[in-house]
Design goal:
The protein has helices spanning 106-110, 114-122, 152-157, and strands spanning 15-25, 30-39, 44-52, 58-66, 79-83, 89-100, 127-139, 144-145, 164-178, 181-198, 206-215, 218-226, 232-240, 243-257, 264-273, 278-284, 288-294, 300-312, 315-328. The chain has 329 residues and is mostly beta strands. Strands 1-2-3-4-6-7-9-10 form an eight-stranded antiparallel barrel. Strands 11-12-13-14-15-16-18-19 form an eight-stranded antiparallel beta barrel. A hairpin with a 2-residue loop joins strand 9 and strand 10. It is globular. The N and C termini lie far apart (41 Å). The model has no long low-confidence stretch (mean pLDDT 91).
Length: 329
């Protein structure tokens, strides 16, 4: 198990340590993504929580607040990520989430003033409900750390996405309460990640990051940053029959986007793992939540959160997160 927090060794304002959870219940047809991040040089804690609901709508929660001591991994807003002494985790949430009938409207809403957003809520174009979540997270693999198996060039290109990156797969159980509706989550596969370092959402380049599960014996987690000159920073692992197998190379065979060049449609990757085996991964995006970022210089990017469908070496019915980051010109 990796150290859970790290002292900041940089004066960069965007140095952060973050914790991420993704899960999807096929039985309940509900999925979620939660992130807590800390920027000690800004004394800032941030969380977002996205729920993809069975009826095609989405619920969104976002909170920023002042945090003086992030080294104790405190809650942010209504979200708690809590590691237990035995290596398991507990995830808890209690707060009001904004519901969107069309989650792709999020960038349009974020560009409007708080008054306009309030008026939309009042007019019920948006609405809020109380949501509660409680999960236990029991790992099924050893923690995998990306940088140990990345090339020097990949590490250099990936500096703006963080210095260290850990991943772990688990079985989740618990419940989600949305208003008066309860979703019981049993034996659902999920995954956490943990990173620290400088995270420059608008300056890192374009990226893809997939967290894919087939069953308790087969999962894959490829990631790639695409530099402006076309070079790739790649990493990730294949989990197969109880073992983590590092990914050696990733080649992007194809990526399809909508006419805007931002929102993804599908992709195909050629992956070679450290045992020398070659794999073909085909991916198709599901419902999309686009998350806009803009820095002080006016540079913009869109982070897409989605759950997609996947096929690995002809094995279908893979599912999990389909995430992309694209610069906006």
């Amino acid at each position: 198990m990796e150290p859970i927090t790290h002292k900041c060794d940089s004066d960069h304002p965007e140095w952060n340590e973050s914790y991420y959870l993704a899960f999807y219940s096929k039985e309940q047809n509900i999925g979620g993504v939660s992130r807590i991040g800390f920027k000690p040089n800004k004394k800032e804690g941030m969380t977002f929580f996205f729920l993809f609901l069975p009826n095609g709508t989405a619920a969104i929660y976002h909170k920023e607040e002042e945090i003086d001591d992030y080294l104790k991994l405190p809650p942010v807003g209504g979200m708690v990520h809590n590691r237990q002494p035995d290596g398991n985790w507990n995830y808890d949430f209690d707060g009001k989430m904004v519901f969107l009938n069309n989650p792709e409207d999020l960038p349009k809403i974020s560009e409007q003033s708080k008054l306009s957003l309030l008026l939309k809520v009042i007019r019920k174009k948006l609405y809020k409900k109380q949501v509660k979540m409680r999960f236990s997270f029991k790992p099924i693999n050893d923690v995998y750390e990306y940088s140990e198996f990345m090339t020097p060039e990949s590490l250099e290109l990936g500096k703006k996405a963080g210095d260290k990156h850990w991943e772990q797969i688990a079985i989740l159980s618990g419940e989600i309460q949305v208003g008066n509706k309860n979703y019981i989550i049993k034996n659902t596969i999920g995954q956490r990640d943990h990173t620290y370092g400088i995270r420059d959402w608008t300056g890192v380049g374009n990226w893809l990051y997939y967290v894919i599960w087939f069953n308790e014996n087969l999962a894959i987690n490829p990631a790639a940053i695409i530099a402006d000159d076309g070079r790739l920073s790649t990493g990730g692992f294949l989990f197969k029959n109880g073992k983590n197998i590092p990914l050696k190379t990733i080649r992007i065979v194809d990526q399809q986007f909508r006419e805007d060049g931002i929102l993804p449609i599908s992709s195909e990757l050629e992956i070679v793992d450290f045992s020398g085996e070659k794999h073909i991964l085909k991916a198709r995006v599901g419902p999309i939540i686009p998350v806009p970022f803009e820095d002080k210089g006016g540079n913009k990017a869109i982070l897409v959160q989605s759950f997609g469908s996947f096929e690995l070496d002809g094995i279908s019915k893979g599912y999990g997160t389909f995430e992309t980051l694209r610069k906006v010109s």
